[in-house]
Amino acid sequence: MPTVALSAAMRGRAASLRAMPMTFVRPPCVRGMASRSRPSAGRRVASGAVTAAAVLAGAAFAVYCLDSRAGVHRWIFPKAMELLTDPETGAKFSIGVLEHGLAPRDCVADDEVLRTELFGRTLTNPIGLAAGFDKQAQAVDGLFDLGFGIVEIGSVTPEPQPGQPKPRMFRLPLDHAVINRMGFNSEGHEAVRERLDARMQRWVQRVLGAGQGLISNLGTEEAEEAPAKLRAAQLLAGYPVLDVSMLDAAGVPRSLKEDRLLSVNLGKNKTSREDSPADYVEGVRRLGPYADMLVINVSSPNTPGLRRLQRRSVLEGLLRDVVAARNDVAQHRPTTLPLLVKVAPDLSDAELEDIADAAEASHIDGVIVSNTTVSRPTGLLSRKHVEEVGGLSGPPLKPLALHALEVMYRRSGGRLTLIGSGGIASAADALDFARAGASAVQLYTALAYHGPGLPRRIKDDLVATLRAQNTTWSQIVGTGLAEVPAYAPDAQRVGLYPGAPDALERSVASVRHELEQLRETLGVQTHGEERRALPFALHKGDEDYATLLDEAHAALDGEAHWAATETPHAGVLPAHDSAVPADLLAFAQERGSTQGEALHEAVQQAVEVPQAAPGVQDSGKPDETLGGLEAQRAAPLPAAEPTRVV
Question: Which terms are listed as keywords in the entry (predicted)?
Fold first, then answer.
């Protein structure tokens, strides 16, 4: 009985608990959560309004960023890339954004004053992208969307190669310049060909899809406004197999953009024979069918021996072989396949003229002037990375490229189509190149510093300038520059191009310019007395040195600094006192060495063990020197022997 009573009591207690209101069994935290889960109607409206405003603001910002003219693309994104990435990583990131359609676009139609004729084709504008940015043809359409009239991919080599070890690209931010030694890093002909072919097939599928939509809407306003698209779709639909030749039947350029050109830049593998045209010939045959224009790169400074192909004796034969291959590829095309060669700015005037002659003799269509420079012009503001090996691009390159362009245009008499490249960052730069003879221009480095809106800004400024002068781009080409900027490569920082006849003159001009700047900085008068170097007796083994002296004096002022004597490499100095001891000459003659060698040895001995020069007797009258050492004042040097000023 007690057990039955307990069970009954428990059942009663449970029943009483079930009858109690739920609020008595909920913990306080649960009650708080339940009360907060039902906000007031006003709060719900406010929260919805904030969410909607955020979505609208995000959408508006996205639309704003789609226009390449947006300020963020000029003032924020380039600076962020410069701070957060190295140059090569930044370029790869930009290519990825362009490849996936996330980059901004040029949303404005090009003005009529920018239209130009190039190789018999009309371009909506003369602003192109130089080779080196999209080496693997990954972002062709995204780059055209930025507003370029020409997009050049590459350089592309026959076989894949990694290029130079990293790091291999360096910013010079104060100069808005870049030094690179990429070394033709390429995925090879086949990878690039497959990418271009896939791009073409995607375009054909889009055209066919659009054509089917137009056919289903025949008679409507939409179909009547797009007869060209309808005809293209009908033509392409008749091909059983998608092939690049179908573009010719439809009258479509390889750029797949009306009035635009797709250019392919061809390079050589590092392991290929230096003087062989085989790599270029193979590139023409494999990639020529996908290009509106081909460029032979013989001027990259980062492939050993490549620049030697610019010598006329080699270049003319190479170009003839490449032209023959181009003719084979283009014989079934209704339009021409222009072939150009890209040259360096570090050549002498004579070499540039030789290239112009070789280009005409081999019947190529044009020249791109110029590639990067191996020199380091005076006036560079950046100090970090300036000593890195590689090609320099950006504004410091402009005077060199302009000079080379002016020489090429003058030599060819306008018979060769020239494309200018090198330091172009503004409409004023583009106009300088046009006046010097460029029918179109290309840029690259400036894009990294000024953002993807640069092509549109240059075009807008060009339109304003040309309309103010009541002229057009085509009309100013070759009208001539008022002044071609001087240029002076710095020979102390980089070896000059071998074989250039005026290389020494350039070097001397550069050094003299730096000395004058240093004198002005220090407040020294530049017209004061100039001291001659000490005289040195010429050794019979110093013939090369003597020749160098002759050239140096001729480069300085065209006058010899010595009087002619019976020997071709001797001179007579005016009588004067010298700090070189007379006994040192006898010491040098006994040793069979030059006075310079004897001087060097004497100085080395003096540094190691303080002592008088060889053969000098101590007179007991020491003289204090700056180093605190005791040395004997040297006797005057007799001026009877023929000596030479160095």
Answer: Flavoprotein, FMN, Membrane, Oxidoreductase
User: Could you read off the pLDDT of 514-566 as tens digits, one per residue?
Assistant: 566 566 656 655 444 444 444 445 555 666 667 776 777 666 655 544 444 44
Return the exposure string of 7-18: e unless at least 16 CB atoms fall within 10 Å of the residue's CB, then b.
eeeeeeeeeeee
- 3-state DSSP of 528-592: CCCCCCCEECCCCCCHHHHHHHHHHHHHHHCCCCCCCCCCCCCECCCCCCCCCCHHHHHHHHHHC
Going by C-alpha positions, the residue among 578, 582, 596 that lies closest to residue 539 is 596
B/e letters for 121-152, b = 16+ CB within 10 Å, e = fewer, are bebbbbbbbbbbbbbbbbbbbbbbbbbbbbbb
Distance between CA atoms of 138 and 100, rounded to whole angstroms?
A: 9
For the chain, helix, strand, coil in percent to 5 are 45, 10, 40
Instruction: Work out the end-to-end distance of the chain between its first and last CA atoms, rounded to an integer number of angstroms.
Output: 134
Burial of 187-207, coded b for 16+ CB within 10 Å and e otherwise, reads bbbeebbebbeebbeebbeeb
DSSP state of 40: -
How many C-beta atoms surround the C-beta of residue 511 within 10 A?
Answer: 16
From 94, 155, 300, 412, the catalytic residue: 300
Strands (E), 202-266: 261-266
Q: Which long-range contacts (CB under 8 A, 24 or more apart) does 550-554 make?
A: 551/504, 552/504, 552/508
Does 300 participate in catalysis according to the annotation?
yes
Residue by residue, DSSP assigns 175-209 as: GTEEEE-----B--HHHHHHHHHHHHHHHHHHHHH
Check the CA dihedral 565-567-571-575 and report its sign.
negative
pLDDT in tens, 349-378: 999 999 999 999 999 999 999 999 999 988
Q: What is the pTM of this model?
A: 0.69
pLDDT at 542: 64
Helix (H, G, I), strand (E, B) or coil at 290: helix
Q: Which residue has the higher pLDDT, 487 or 602?
A: 602
Domains of the chain by range and CATH? Answer: 65-476 (3.20.20.70), 504-618+629-645 (no CATH)
